[in-house]
């Protein structure tokens, strides 16, 4: 059991008013810095925006929620600027921080809950992952809010039956699923908690209501997958597939992959918070956790463990475990509050520095460099300049039809050249499409004239004339050092061959 008397005498106090000032202050800082952000849309951001221009119940690599959110903010603002595309990120983090505070008070209760809740809010709003994802739009910022709402409702249902909260539980889990399928990693831990802890069980009526509501919410996306050759599911399988390599080198690679993912979590949520989660694991093993602490453990740590296993067997991106850090933040703060006087303040200082620096980096994206001379924000600059160069080439060559196969190039072409007199298509290789653009915006068969084809290597078309118009290397950004080629080619040269193999699927995170 937690010694609450000891916690009140050793932990540093933080008033609700000060916590709210920090949370709203950090949010305001992020919003203001978005106004002067100098970065281009990242490839995923540009793609999500384009999805929002083509509303649907599902997309090639993700469920539809992020497209709906971006379209909403574009609609109410009447603008497709990067500011309005990204503005949802800091606002969702604000809502999540406030919801985590309410969830903390609901779980812990009493005076202790009121004292811990402000710390939970400020620690979350300054998590490194929150600071990075607040300067760009991503599925993680949306999903963690719905996960937090689901946890709040679940805790309430463990104490009393409620039709309303069962509906909220089912709907929030459904919306989390419509944001990112990784919410499913929460289910094993929830199942273990309900099986092993009487205090974590909810009434069967509430289970049924939540399940029915959740099924109704996710059904449009499941139907979309059914009618679109299970595109999102196949893509998800592709980026998470187990390696079939054999031998000791493969074993070493798997171990390094697992260690890399696990180590990255110290950066995702900060070294102090992640250490506290490991500490919570040790407490559970030693039998020192009460039921509330155990519940938070089962709603967080198993997600990290499962995705670490995935990383060992194949690969996993560092952000795949984000759904763990709703309950995980509460758990970590609660332990730090009770057991270390300096832990919370140290974590807050680290997070505050990161929360200040990252937005500044986006404003000086073309000025701040690494020791090797690369721009520190090189992944987020230099994309629009490539699109504008391609537009100039197409105009000079009098070829308004532009075709490319690289998803990074296609994503920015659609965004940067929106409203311009160009028709942009993806090259179709046949078989399962490599990306969203090939799936839905492939070069039509009825286009027969010459087109401008952008590639990063030599291109030949036997029996047809291929004119190399220009080769160039982008001056900065992710593609600096690479050579791009602009060819004027007959459209027939880009048609899929009858024997074309199925696409492998682009690795869209």
Automatic annotation (TrEMBL):
One of its GO terms (molecular function) is pentosyltransferase activity. It is found in: Cell membrane. It is a multi-pass membrane protein. InterPro entries: LipidA_mod_glycosyltrf_83, RgtA/B/C-like. Residues 61-224 form the Glycosyltransferase RgtA/B/C/D-like domain. GO terms for cellular component: plasma membrane. Keywords: Cell membrane, Glycosyltransferase, Membrane, Transferase, Transmembrane, Transmembrane helix. The chain crosses the membrane at residues 14-36, 83-101, 122-155, 167-195, 207-226, 259-283, 295-314, 320-337, 344-366. The keyword Repeat does not apply. The keyword Secreted does not apply. GO terms for biological process: lipopolysaccharide biosynthetic process. This is Glycosyl transferase.
